[in-house]
Write a structure and sequence with these properties.
The chain is of the alpha+beta class. It is built from 12 helices and 19 strands. It folds into 3 domains: 86 residues, OB fold (Dihydrolipoamide Acetyltransferase, E2P), CATH 2.40.50.100; 94 residues, no CATH class; 204 residues, Chloramphenicol Acetyltransferase. The longest helix is centred in the middle third of the chain and has 18 residues.
Length: 438
């Protein structure tokens, strides 16, 4: 009996997605709720689970195809469940020679062992344990062959430790930057197979180009950012803030904080709290425009810009104004981890009344962040560096950070924007204000 696998609901207003990669091949066994494919939507990547246990018999869509919600993309034969345990073996055996030929290396002493656990970078894919071979997606397999890397020596960042294409590329770049010592060649007849030659480097003066289709997520990011520029009357105001008090507080309490809450005390907790405090004095910064009406919110849902392998995503910390420092830090850390793994859901992205973007973690000194519609403002944080400032008539070195507030001038006046940023600055330079609500 064959069961159809349909594209699941992808979230509000999302009617289709792009089939990013197949996680299972025809002939492979699948378990109930085991992911068989990965879909890329306008906001996040979504895995398609198997509705039943059995063997994948058909793939009705190819990688890169656009598929609508409810479309049938695969079929699973439930009657083959009894023989499922043996199903992956032929697929693995068929895949092994091709990958092994590309790698063309041998490891007689390590055969039958798990190279990933041993740290052995000379073992070919063919000798990896069955689960290593069968969980490589087609995109990852192509990357492995192209970059000539051993997947068993790479730590996967995908769900359940699966390798992603980005993991393979990062490993290849790391090998180029810090070339490992050449492995000793085995002597005797076993040394007959010659290792595959790496791709020839570009000749001197040769000019190359590569065309890569924009991912659906990247296309959506581009469209939304351009729409924001075209629609909002966007303006940016700047200020700088002395981070001495926050840095001192972190240094004093970081060990106790981590011991009690199990999470490190970062800067984001202070800034989220400061933004919530400032929003009480200047509510328009936490408002949104809906037609000819301004919607004011008595809560603060902070969209936190997080870097993911496929682009910038903005999961939402809901009711941030009512959360403790520990709750804020734990939520943001969880978002960062899930963004890297590609497991953020549509519901994590929806909503948000204000955005904080921390370009300082990448070394940015100053920027003009773009509003995340329909929000009316975004705060940009930047790197901390010692600069000379005048304090009590003396020139001293202080750890300073530039802050940038981009806002929609249609509903926020310049006076309100400047006042809001000054309130944030005051709270950061004197964190006691956060405790006594000043």
């Amino acid at each position: 009996m064959a069961t159809d696998v349909q594209v699941p609901a992808l979230g509000e207003s999302i009617t289709e997605g792009t089939l990013a990669e197949w996680l299972k091949k025809p002939g492979e066994a699948v378990k109930v709720d085991e992911p068989i494919a990965s879909l890329e939507t306008d906001k996040v990547s979504v895995e398609v689970p198997s509705p039943v246990a059995g063997v994948l018999t058909e793939q009705l869509a190819q990688e890169g195809d656009n598929v609508a919600v409810g479309a049938v993309i695969a079929r699973i034969d439930e009657s083959a469940t009894a023989g499922a345990a043996a199903a992956p073996a032929p697929a693995a055996a068929a895949a092994a020679p091709a990958v092994a030929a590309a790698e063309a290396t041998t490891n007689p002493a390590g055969a039958g062992e798990t190279p990933a656990l041993k740290g052995d970078t000379t073992a070919p894919v063919a000798e990896a344990e069955e689960d290593h071979v069968t969980t490589l997606s087609p995109a990852v397999r192509r990357a492995v062959l192209e970059y000539h890397v051993d997947p068993t020596s790479i730590r996967g960042t995908g769900k359940d430790g699966r390798l992603t294409k980005d993991d393979v590329i990062a490993a290849a770049q790391s090998q180029k930057a810090q070339p490992a010592a050449e492995a000793k060649a085995p002597s005797g007849p076993a040394a007959a197979p010659a290792p595959a030659q790496p791709k020839a480097p570009a000749a001197a003066g040769e000019r190359r180009e590569e065309r890569v289709k924009m991912s659906r997520l990247r296309q959506t990011i581009a469209k939304r950012l351009k729409d924001a520029q075209n629609t909002a009357a966007m303006l940016t105001t700047f200020n700088d803030v002395d981070m001495s008090a926050v840095i001192d507080a972190r240094a004093r309490y970081k060990d106790l904080f981590e011991k009690k809450h199990g999470i490190r005390l970062g800067f984001m907790g202070f800034f989220v709290k400061a933004c919530a405090l400032a929003a009480r004095d200047v509510p328009s910064v936490n408002a949104s425009l809906d037609g000819d009406e301004i919607v004011y919110h008595d809560y603060l849902d902070v969209s936190v810009a997080v870097s993911a392998p496929k682009g910038l995503v903005v999961p939402v910390v809901r009711n941030a104004d009512r959360m403790s420092f520990a709750e804020i830090e734990k939520t943001i850390a969880d978002f960062g981890k899930r963004a890297k793994e590609g497991t953020l859901g549509i519901e994590d992205m929806q909503g948000g009344t204000f955005t904080i973007s921390n370009g300082g973690v990448f070394g940015s000194l100053l920027s003009t962040p773009i509003i995340n519609p329909p929000q009316s403002a975004v705060l940009g944080m930047h790197r901390i560096e010692e600069r000379p400032v005048v304090k009590d008539g003396q020139i001293v070195a202080r750890p300073m950070m530039y802050l940038a507030l981009s806002y929609d001038h249609r509903i926020i006046d310049g006076r309100e924007a400047v006042t809001y940023l000054v309130r944030v600055k005051e709270a950061i330079e004197d964190p006691t204000r956060l405790l006594i609500d000043l």
